[in-house]
Amino acid sequence: MNLLSLFLPLIRRQWLMMLTGLTLAIVTLLAGIGLLSLSGWFLSATAVAGLSVATAQTFNFFTPAGGVRFLSIARTASRYGERLATHEATFRLLTELRVRVWKALMPLDEARLAGERRGELLNRLVADIDTLDHFYLRLMVPMGAFIALLLALFAFIGWFDMGLALTLCGALLLCLLIIPAGFYLLGRQSAAAVVNGKRRYRLLTLEYLGGLAELAMFKGLKGERALLDSAESEWQTAQRAMASLLGLSQAVIILAHGAIVLLMLYLAAQGVGERVPPGPLAAMVLFAALATMELLQPLASAFSQLSGCAAAAGRVKSLLDEKSAICFGERDERLSGEVGFKNVSFSYDAANGSGNPVLNAFNLTVAAGTKVAILGKTGAGKSSLFALLCRSYEPQHGSISIGGVPITELNERALRATLTVVTQRVHLFAGPLRDNLALACEQKVADATLIEVLEQVGLGYLASGDEGLGQWIGEGGRQLSGGEQRRIGIARALLRDTPIMLLDEPTEGLDSQTEQLMLARLFEHAKGKTLLMISHRLTAMAEMDCIHILEGGQLVASGKHTELLAAHPEYRSLKSRN
Ligand SMILES: Nc1ncnc2c1ncn2[C@@H]1O[C@H](COP(=O)(O)OP(=O)(O)OP(=O)(O)O)[C@@H](O)[C@H]1O
């Protein structure tokens, strides 16, 4: 069911190329069977004609020889075309499927994605979709061609002898009904085990490689390696079982085909239609029966893979059916920088009922154009405030607004165009420095602007090498230090011009001189904008219009730096710890 519901919409769009592939597959098989039957008849008829001088002189050698040549050229040409068309159709189907999965994946909210291992998503996007190429190429095309050829064969042999046609096509039909069903049932477990084994091995390999440094440091390599080896050997066992089954299927098909050929030889030798003895027509029927091997061969392997395909389809379909819990609205307008949290309650795992509230009837209003800091102990829920404002998560109660408009009414474009966020963890893509910076801008941005911003954050030297902005930033920015990565995050923020800036401990891990410099740049850039900064240090607090202290999911104190220093011991203790 999953397979069909996944493929039906695709078939509707790619039907022409798929039909072309199927038609060419039918033409190839027709030409193959025609070639063998005609050759069989031609050789026997030539031998019979040679028995007397009179028949040898009157026998027309040229037309059948031309037919053989035509059919062999037609077979080669249509086989070439078939391969092109079926593979083109497969690639189109897989491309569409992959794009569909990607589009379904993109809008999923963080709460939904947090439950998935990254390797699992990659697996669905790559390995599972690859497995689905069996469906058209190895299942639909051979089955369609088989049925079309069965009808053609029935008409052709039936023209000479209805009994022989019924026997040959009946036996082939029986093979079609029994062999695929049998091998589907036999291969059900192994095919699913191969797909699952591959999936598990991929997941573990990705985790192993990702955690290699930690595993080496904490002597965990051996245990993890053993886990990987056992997953590999399970996968190999499943593959071995599948290969044995495929071998068995080929043997069964050869046996069934041999029996059909013998039966046809026996029956055709008794006479073909009115002709007794049958003469060269017996060879024609026999060779036609021999040629049906090409029809039978793909049957068993196609069906033994079916359960693997169905398992992959189930996983891909479940991803396509996922819906984000976050629904964006329709409003698309340029907003002022006022931010409001009204009676907001939020817990990360409210869905399973056991959630500890991170925010509890939380209220906060930040006037447009002001600089506000939110301080609190680690785990107090400061970053969660930003996550809610960016709509990575949805609060269970209350409402959040920007410029007086509830954020649930805004479309995604409007929301993103209003916010600039410097997150705690800056993600760098394995790509050129230029691309890693330019992704902050919606419009194309000049290299000179990027270099200027890099200089502002003290990273001008990165672009001064031979490769300039084309310098490759390794996977996750491995070629850069932690502090350099953070400053690239700040550079991205400086490239944006939005009414609100959200800074989540933007200078964590930087030395105090660089920290002062970065904050000065950010505050300069934030002039006239609303700036919300999360911190657990008191650095730059004197420059804030208001500072709030978050504790137990609520604000426990608010005021200016000097007021809080005087009135709030917790605030003073923050300072003394730093
Ligand atoms: N994605 C998540 N899923 C489940 N719980 C989370 C998630 N992110 C944070 N939490 C939990 O929510 C609480 C608040 O986390 P949050 O990151 O908002 O705190 P914070 O004040 O920013 O802390 P820090 O100063 O250490 O960054 C913590 O108890 C944390 O364990």
Automatic annotation (TrEMBL):
Membrane topology: Multi-pass membrane protein
Domain (ABC transporter): residue spans on this chain: 339-577
Ranges of residues in domain ABC transmembrane type-1: 24-308
Principal subcellular localization: membrane
A molecular-function term among this protein's GO annotations: ATP binding
Transmembrane segments: 15-35, 139-159, 165-187, 241-269
Keyword annotations of the record: ATP-binding, Membrane, Nucleotide-binding, Transmembrane, Transmembrane helix
Location in the cell: Cell membrane
UniProt cross-references to PANTHER family, sorted A to Z: ATP-BINDING CASSETTE SUB-FAMILY B MEMBER 10, MITOCHONDRIAL (PTHR43394:SF1), ATP-DEPENDENT PERMEASE MDL1, MITOCHONDRIAL (PTHR43394)
NCBIfam families to which the protein is assigned, alphabetical: CydC, PRK11160.1
Protein name: Cysteine/glutathione ABC transporter ATP-binding protein/permease CydC
Organism encoding this protein: Shewanella jiangmenensis
Organism ancestry: Bacteria, Pseudomonadati, Pseudomonadota, Gammaproteobacteria, Alteromonadales
Gene that specifies this protein: cydC
